[in-house]
Amino acid sequence: MEDRSVFTPSNGTFKINNLIRTDGAEYILHIFDSKGRESEQRTLQLSIQAPVSSVRLDSECLSQGEMRVSCSSEGADSPQYSWTLDGHTLTDAQLLSGNNETNNITLKQNVSGRLVCSVMNHISNVSKEEKISTCGFIFINCTLPDGTNISQWVFSANNTLSIDPTTTPTMITDTSVDNSLLVCGLRAAVVLSLLVGIAIYFAWKKKKYNKVETSSRPRIKDHPENSFAMVEL
Known about the structure:
Blueprint (H helix, E strand, L loop, with lengths): L4 E4 L4 E4 L9 E7 L5 E8 L8 E8 L5 E8 L5 E6 L2 E2 L5 E3 L6 E4 L5 E8 L4 E8 L4 E7 L5 E7 L19 H41 L18
Antiparallel strand pairs: 1-2, 3-4, 5-6, 6-10, 7-8, 7-11, 9-10, 11-12, 13-14
């Protein structure tokens, strides 16, 4: 170290160039007076750490819809981990295993949002964010026709046990209203048909009456002496 270190007595500065890991140690400074007697002693613990260069998040879905997430860092010495979801520290209600200070956690089935893993040491702090969603599992709680009650997490795409209770219910049309509208429409059609029929009937009667009236007038022959009146009823 003599070739890489410099001590400046005027300001008490001790400088080490080209640090290596083995330079991390306990350093003791002895101060002597003009008579050669030690007047003071100071101790400094030097810790050498590499900064966090990058952070990586890996996630996988488990068999029952839980999600295992691992956070790894490169280049960091003595890394410390912390987790947040949508800006808030992860709670025990959201964690199935692990805690907020480990690099591997398992989230419960219904947890989703903006997950952030932060890695830090004494000289650096780097974070990694990932948008996570549920693994396609839903919780069903229903009773089958045979009386069997089912309460469990199932994969939504393959669910044949019961309908997802969170699904928006299908709107059921009131058939009584539809039937009443149909009856009213039929009645209106019948009344309209009757009115049209009556109108046609009276029009036909009037036409026939005019025809009879016209045909009842006397017809005069060209030769009056041979003419006679014909009445057609």
